[in-house]
Amino acid sequence: LFSKTYCPYCLAAKQVLNRYPDMKPRYHVIEVDLRPDADRIKAYLTKKTGQSTFPNIFIDGKSVGGSSDLAAMDADKRLSKLFHKMGI
């Protein structure tokens, strides 16, 4: 989960993922705004995903989009099915 510390959408994405307390391994957060290479990370993510906003969420190495995408996956149970399929 590529995030920014002050971003409300990033917080919302973390709240969705926190609904899965048994998830092993736990999700990993990179707070991009705290890193000296923030501009390079953003440029890389934009090139890789076509998305220039945060959060930028990857599950099993695949981009799933941002906060609203993750919330939609949670709401229609795709997220729990994906985690189950992955053995998480």
From TrEMBL:
Pfam families: Glutaredoxin (PF00462). Keywords: Disulfide bond, Electron transport, Redox-active center, Transport. Residues 1-64 form the Glutaredoxin domain. The keyword Disulfide bond applies. InterPro entries: GLR_AS, Glutaredoxin, Glutaredoxin_euk/vir, Glutaredoxin_subgr, Thioredoxin-like_sf. GO terms for molecular function: glutathione disulfide oxidoreductase activity. GO terms for cellular component: cytoplasm. It comes from the Eukaryota. GO terms for biological process: cellular response to oxidative stress. The keyword Electron transport applies. NCBIfam families: GRX_euk. This is Thioredoxin-like protein. It comes from Syncephalis pseudoplumigaleata.
